[in-house]
Amino acid sequence: MARTNRTERKQAKAAISAAKVASREAEKLAKRMPRSRRRSRLSLAVADADLARRAAREQLGHSPRRAARTAARATVRLQRAAAATTPRRGVSASGGARGRSGRVPTNVLAPGVPPGEIAERAKANAKLLKRHRVQAKQARGWAKKIAAGVVAQSIVVPTDAEAARVRRQRKP
After folding, report:
1. Of 38, 68, 84, 123, which cross-links 12 as Cys (Cβ 3.0–4.6 Å)?
2. How far apart are CA 133 and CA 137, in angstroms?
């Protein structure tokens, strides 16, 4: 009995640490976003997840399974909040979010899921948050490059009047 409880505590600690990583990633994502309603929603989700993570830390000693589920729930909420605030990619025609493999992610919070699996899924959700943040950063970079290209083209490419004047000068 003690060994099982010890294993459950270890797995709950893993879920709590994954929730902490997810919280940091979501916070980084929120910092890089422009000040808007989406950013404030994500910041509120981060604060809520931090409270849930602290509650899970307190539950760790007497109820490790509940602690694991609480931490996993916080991670899932962060992942969903980040998905709602970042550019839409990987959304199927029916509107359902799909993972990298194209399948619908399974429910982390389903009853009867062992704590070890909860910890693994929480860690995967934390990685997913990191990918969201990196993709958002890439999109901002692309926008900056396109804007710089437009400015460069407007400087380099002559207007129609200038082009007509140059053509008239070239004709002998």
Report:
1. 68
2. 6
The Cα diameter of the chain in Å comes to 100
Reading the block at residue 34, the tokens are 């422009």
Neighbours of 75 (CB within 10 A): 33
Number of residues written out for the chain: 172
Q: Give the CA-trace dihedral at 48, 118, 125, 47, to 10 degrees.
A: 10
**CA contacts within 13 A on the Cβ side of 68:** 27
**CA R_g for the chain:** 24
- Summarised one tens digit per residue, pLDDT across range 124-147 is 877 878 887 888 888 888 888 998
**Domain definitions of the chain by residue range:** 2-87+104-170
Instruction: Give the pair of three-digit tokens for residue 74.
Output: 């916080």
pTM score, whole prediction: 0.59
